């Protein structure tokens, strides 16, 4: 997992395909139990999203919202975006085209 502490309040994570994706989401959820940061998840390296990882994303979103933190997704490939559309995830998550736009949206909403 490539994790960058972009600022004191924001971390950026470059995700990869499974099995790394599962590990990355689990590690991130554990990390955010002790830290309160906004998160940008870059999906550029993800080509497939399964139901267990959808569940992990929803859990991560719930935990972040409960702690008044924000989550942005970016770099989602067309085949993964199809999963977001079919499952309704597109209406639950804030999505940007790339990392720079996701970071900008967090800064603007600050």
Can you put this structure into words, describing what you see?
- With 110 residues, the protein is α/β, with parallel strands linked by helices.
- The protein contains four helices and five strands.
- A five-stranded mixed sheet has the order 1-2-3-4-5, with helices on both faces.
CATH architect. name: 2-Layer Sandwich
Count structural domains: 1
* Model regions low in confidence, pLDDT < 50 over at least 5 residues: none
Q: Can you identify the CATH superfamily? A: STAS domain
Write the layout of secondary structure elements.
Elements: E1 2-5, E2 10-16, H1 20-32, E3 38-45, H2 51-66, E4 71-74, H3 78-87, E5 94-96, H4 99-108
Parallel strand pairs: 2-3, 3-4, 4-5
Antiparallel strand pairs: 1-2
Helix pairs in contact: 1-2
List keywords for this structure.
about 110 residues, 5 strands, about 45% helix, alpha/beta, Transcription Regulator spoIIAA
């Amino acid at each position: 997992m490539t994790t960058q502490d972009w600022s004191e309040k924001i971390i950026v994570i470059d995700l990869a395909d499974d099995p790394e994706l599962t590990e990355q989401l689990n590690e991130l959820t554990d990390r955010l139990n002790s830290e309160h940061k906004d998160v940008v998840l870059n999906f550029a390296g993800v080509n497939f999203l399964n139901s267990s990882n959808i569940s992990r994303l929803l859990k991560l979103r719930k935990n972040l919202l409960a702690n008044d933190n924000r989550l942005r997704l970016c770099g989602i490939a067309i085949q993964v975006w199809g999963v977001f559309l079919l499952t309704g995830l597109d209406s639950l998550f804030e999505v940007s085209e790339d990392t720079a736009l996701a970071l900008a949206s967090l800064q603007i909403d600050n």
